[in-house]
Amino acid sequence: MDILAFLKSQFICHLLICYVFVATGLIVNSIQLCTLVLWPINKQLYRRINCRLAYCISSQLVMLLEWWSGTDCTLHTDPESYKKFGKENAIVVLNHNYEIDFLCGWTFCERFGVLGSSKVLAKKELAYVPLIGWMWYFLEIVFCNRKWEEDRRSVARGLHNLRDYPENFWFLIHCEGTRFTEKKHQISMQVAEAKGLPKLKYHLLPRTKGFTVTVQCLRNVVAAVYDSTLNFRNNENPTLLGVLNGKKYHADLLVRRIPLEEIPEDENECGNWLHKLYQEKDAFQEEYFKTGVYPGTAIVPPRRIWTLGLWLCWSTLLSYPLFKLLVNMISSGSSLTLATFGIIIIAASVGVRWMIGVTEINKGSSYGNNVAKQKHN
Fold first, then answer.
1. Whole-number Å distance between alpha carbons of 165 and 68
2. Confidence (pLDDT) at 128
């Protein structure tokens, strides 16, 4: 193991990364709170500022994947579509099979300069989570309760608010509603059989209502749907803990640009279109597992220096007060002070492991596990 790989695996480095992320997040969240005074005065200025502030947080996670882990990300698409990425609003449909697929989605956004303004459809509980959840609140992310009777009006309202957004944005959506597990897949295919729908091998049955409302509300604002199917080479099973330890992965992302005018406006027809899309995604996955490649031209979008540069700026700015605090605590020699420092380190260790655990598949959402309680749309 070389020295750099050894350092990346050390907990002290992980703790420093976490410290910079948390401290930056709290500072940014505080500034975002102050920007609320701009909303009634100049809404578009408020939005532009919050895009940049949100980038300060989300870019640090992308930095981990791109620069710390060094994960390769190869895009498979057609050259004409590639020219339009980052220059138009789009709905990005992602599969939900891996612990870091959200991070790969953000990396896709970052490579084309729309990370700060990217949107997602997220469960409402996340709006109350410090750092990312609060960042999303100020960024006008669309939240839902996963109860369609309650969600339809609020989701439509949130989407309509984006129609005059001043920045190019991508709206990222996992139509399966939850991350793929064998148990969820078995239940999902039982629903498919009951509804007479073709079974999927590598995906859960998509929930159509959220997608159809998104298309209806953003029509004439969004230019296309980017159908995105992610996989990893050599049967890799990437985890956030692996990324934090500096492990390098090799991602392949198939992206098909579908003009929005090709998607039916009728709700039922749009739902049928989405089911057909997921059958095509399943076929692409089947081909990938057989051949190891996706169709289309393989392109590696260049990494942008901004994620690394911004992280270095924040880490330099925040390291001084941390170093000064440590020196004062050690030089004081007080048993109480050193014990308090030890407790803080232990608490930080537990906190880091908890945040990583949130992304683990076996600790993911139970949404979709109980067919008697949850209905596929």
1. 33
2. 84
Paired sense of beta strands 250-259 and 224-232, if any? antiparallel
Amino acid at 332: S
> What per-residue confidence (pLDDT) applies to 362?
45
Ranges under pLDDT 50 in the chain: 358-364, 371-377
Q: Which residue is listed with tokens 């057909």?
A: 276
Q: Which amino acid is at 44?
A: Q
- Tokens 């002290």 correspond to what residue? 12
pLDDT at 372: 38
CA 110 – CA 322 distance, rounded (Å): 30
Q: Are 55 and 115 contacting, i.e. CB atoms less than 8 angstroms apart? A: yes
The pLDDT score that the predictor gives to residue 360 is: 44
Place of tokens 């095509």: 280
Report yes or no: 246 and 5 within 8 Å, Cβ to Cβ. yes
Alpha-carbon gap, residue 248 to 164, rounded angstroms: 40
Say which residues have a Cβ less than 8 Å from residue 372's Cβ, sequence separation at least 6: none
Rg (CA), the chain: 22
Asked whether the whole model's pTM tops 0.85, one would answer yes
Angstrom CA distances, 265 to 157, 177, 227, 257, 272, stand at 18, 22, 18, 18, 11
